[in-house]
Design brief:
single chain, 309 residues, Na+/H+ antiporter like fold
Length: 309
């Protein structure tokens, strides 16, 4: 138990420090937003590039992992969409956002720090592969369906074009593309750029966790706990179980990489979930779900680590 707490407790202590810093006005929302932008624009892209360049590409890219993780996420996504549409009677837009919350993890801000403490360098490789699945498949699919629900007159082409334009400007996607190109060409960075990349990558986890905690302060959950609980069950229970099942069925990957993938799936939804929901008037439900799943993930991640022994 102490070993498990040694992994999970520092993560949630950092989140708590961020929360208290916002609670007592040591940092304001603009400063937190600036730190978050630093992580998304510089630190996480550097971490992804470092993961792609530190090893030969054939060791980094694992097709079995991408297929299994992508399949599991798709199963949870479409299951969540069907539940929201048929049982909750939500609109297509609300159903797509709900399904995204159930099937897309906070890989960079929470999944990576936990996996890195548990598994070391394998975590960075898993994060790079997860970012491919999430940023190239899951998020565009969810946003396109959400836009379709809002733009009945414009149709799929307009929603797809808007989503595509967002993707090509995404720093994570740019880092994956550049890292893959350099890896394919066999390019190794000189000492100074490589050191800069390493320093930026090392800052990703602590700053990201601080931002998560600070962002949680002020989010409202009153009257939305039932919605948040349903989203939480999908994200913290169904998604990890689906990933574990698909990894077991498909196989063909290193056990440590598969373990990292399940740990990533145990993480709550991404921290920008309320911001994405705000575009469609769903910020209340999304914020409540983020608070509930982030707090509850301490238990579910600890249970999974305990099950692993």
């Amino acid at each position: 138990m102490l070993q498990i707490l040694g992994i999970t407790a520092p993560i949630f202590v950092l989140i708590g420090i961020g929360y208290l810093a916002a609670r007592f006005a040591i940092v304001n929302r603009e400063q937190v937003a600036g730190m978050g932008k630093f992580v998304i624009t510089f630190a996480l892209p550097a971490l992804v590039m470092k993961a792609l360049l530190d090893r030969p590409l054939e060791e980094v890219f694992d097709a079995h992992y991408v297929i299994a993780y992508g399949l599991a996420s798709q199963l949870v996504f479409w299951g969540g969409l069907a539940f929201a549409r048929l049982v909750r009677r939500d609109t297509l837009t609300a159903s797509a956002i709900t399904a995204m919350g159930m099937s897309v993890s906070n890989s960079g801000f929470i999944g990576y720090p936990i996996a890195a403490m548990a598994l070391g360098s394998t975590a960075a490789v898993a994060m790079a592969l997860n970012m491919m699945v999430e940023n190239l498949l899951m998020i565009p699919l969810a946003l396109m369906l959400a836009e379709l629900g809002e733009q009945k007159g414009r149709g799929a082409a307009a929603a797809l074009r808007e989503t595509g334009l967002r993707l090509v400007r995404n720093p994570i996607i740019l880092a994956i593309s550049l890292g893959l190109a350099l890896a394919l060409l066999g390019v190794r960075l000189p000492a100074i750029p490589a050191k800069v990349l390493e320093m930026l990558a090392l800052s990703a986890a602590p700053v990201a966790l601080f931002v998560i905690g600070a962002s949680l302060y002020g989010l409202k959950t009153r009257g939305l706990l039932a919605d948040a609980a349903q989203l939480g069950v999908g994200k913290l229970v169904l998604h990890p179980l689906a990933v574990l099942a698909c990894f077991t069925l498909i196989g063909g990957m290193e056990p440590s990489l598969a373990t990292a993938g399940v740990l990533f799936a145990c993480a709550p939804m991404m921290s920008v979930f309320p911001l994405l929901g705000q575009r469609f008037g769903l910020e209340g439900r999304c914020a409540a779900a983020l608070v509930v799943t982030t707090v509850s993930s301490f238990v579910t991640i600890s249970l999974f680590l305990g099950w692993l022994g």
